[in-house]
Amino acid sequence: MTSLTPPPTLSVRVTDSARLLKLKQMFLSKFGSDPKFYVRAPGRVNLIGEHIDYCGYAVLPMAIEQDILAAVEPVKNDVICLANTNPQYLDFTTSTNSIQIDKTKPLWHNYFLCGLKGIQDHFNFNKPTGMNCLVDGTVPPSSGLSSSSALVCCAGLITLTSNGMALSKVELAEACAKSERYIGTEGGGMDQSISFLGEEGTAKLIEFSPLRASDVKLPPGAVFVIANSCVEMNKAATSHFNIRVMECRLATKLIAKRRGLDWKSLSKLGDVQGKLGLSLQEMQAVVEEIFHREPYSVEEICGALGITIDELRATILSQNTQDVSFFKLYQRAKHVYSEAQRVLDFKEVCDEAPADAVQRLGALMSQSHESCKNMYECSCPEVDQLVNTCLQSGAIGSRLTGAGWGGCTVSMVPAGHQDAFIAKVQDAYYKDGSLALLKNNIFATKPASGALVLLEAANN
Ligand code: ADP
Ligand code: NG1
């Protein structure tokens, strides 16, 4: 299986790629020497399965062409120098003896350090080698296409290569999923998994515990188009994301407690389903039976679990959700169990390829968006408007992709109609005001390859 192999190393002629050549020249003028290797890690678009990876459920993303590309030179001194082609991301230097990740300010270099620490933790080595590194990104940041994980994965693979070590794609994905949590968000692992396990030409069903990826052949009659609402939402700078993770964790514990399970040892909705041995449909009925629709106060949750507020804060809640007073449990658990079912249904339609596959997949995508919007409350007015515009412009299904509260939509459009679709959405959503000036807001995408190391061919 390819997932058990390390990421590939490709030999390239830098002169064949304007981007690589520019990066090499910038590196030379910044550091006064040539890079020794390059690493590329892609962003991703999630076709369906939103906010369920951290509940233990399978998701269905594909890697995209947009990526983080870095030029690297390992150095003998104990210093890591990071620079970026985008002047908005300031230079950063640290000694390899004192690597600190600052969760309070999620500045770009902290994501790089997360990837670096992931490899350090995995091999339990004290001091990574020093390096000069110049980063160039094309994934729109804070837009649901996983720019942060592409950066973390790129840094993980750079650290592995600089230190002369080897890991499989699965081990790298697991190490980077774990270490991105140093930034403070409690993500589930979809983004890092697809960044390493992505393959050209195929979407992937990513399953967890153990991590594995299987090919999903998308219907030839459809094209997937990404559109950016141009509303940015940084996960680490707000508590929206972690509140949802906590709501799922609390819902798990309340279900487990009510059903007489060892609730303290369970923290994922998927695990409680496993213990109860029920289907996803049956879990939705359990949610209907156990939870009321109104938000749960912290006091009510503590009463149900038989613990104090201090215990709740110390043993269950993350650092940035300590002061949240109310949690919505019914809505969040309902979304998770129904979305997990939609992922399985989507995969089944792709596998069986019935005549009406495109219609059925489109319906699942639109149901997913409705659930994200109404039950998970992770959309926003601009994204809802963009989804509606996409549906009115010829999409068969459309939904937010990624964490939400802004960011991108993904739409399924009949093959051959994508240019007309893009033109209509341009006209309706991007025509006026400041959005008209922005580039690359809407583009067709297809499954791209996962992370790799690039070495300059000898004859350059
Ligand atoms: P996403 O949904 O894209 O993963 P996040 O809000 O989680 O968004 O992370 C975005 C952050 O990742 C940015 O604020 C920045 O710190 C970092 N980042 C993204 N792209 C780049 C880049 N090209 N260079 C440096 N840092 C980047
Ligand atoms: P993005 O879209 O990159 O912010 C986040 C999480 C994923 C997943 C999705 C929602 C991280 C690194 N990523 O993705 O694990 O939960 O939201 O489906 O936390």
What is this entry, summarized?
The chain is of the alpha+beta class and 460 residues long. It has helices at 18-31, 108-123, 147-162, 169-180, 190-197, 240-258, 269-276, 280-290, 298-305, 309-315, 330-352, 357-374, 381-392, 418-429; strands spanning 9-12, 37-48, 60-75, 79-84, 92-95, 130-137, 203-207, 212-216, 222-228, 296-297, 326-327, 397-400, 408-414, 442-445, 452-456. α6 (240-258) crosses α11 (330-352).
Q: Care to describe what's here?
A:
The chain is about 40% helix and about 20% strand. The chain is an alpha+beta fold. It has a domain at about 1-220 and about 450-455: 2-Layer Sandwich (Ribosomal Protein S5, domain 2). The protein is globular. Bound molecules: adenosine-5'-diphosphate and 2-acetamido-2-deoxy-1-O-phosphono-alpha-D-galactopyranose (NG1). 2-acetamido-2-deoxy-1-O-phosphono-alpha-D-galactopyranose binds near residues 50, 149, 185, 190 and 191.
CATH topology of the domain at 2-218 and 448-456: Ribosomal Protein S5, domain 2
Strand content: 15-25%
Largest sheet: 7 strands, mixed
Overall pLDDT metric: 96
Helix content: 40-55%
What structural category do the secondary elements indicate?
alpha+beta
Topology at a glance:
Layout: E1 9-12, H1 18-31, E2 37-48, E3 60-75, E4 79-84, E5 92-95, H2 108-123, E6 130-137, H3 147-162, H4 169-180, H5 190-197, E7 203-207, E8 212-216, E9 222-228, H6 240-258, H7 269-276, H8 280-290, E10 296-297, H9 298-305, H10 309-315, E11 326-327, H11 330-352, H12 357-374, H13 381-392, E12 397-400, E13 408-414, H14 418-429, E14 442-445, E15 452-456
Parallel strand pairs: 1-15, 4-6
Antiparallel strand pairs: 2-3, 2-15, 3-6, 4-5, 7-8, 9-13, 9-14, 10-11, 12-13
Helix pairs in contact: 2-3, 2-4, 3-4, 3-5, 4-5, 6-7, 6-11, 8-11, 11-12, 13-14
Residues 46, 50-51, 53-54, 144, 146, 148-149, 180, 185, 187-188, 190-191, 235, 402-403 line the site of 2-acetamido-2-deoxy-1-O-phosphono-alpha-D-galactopyranose.
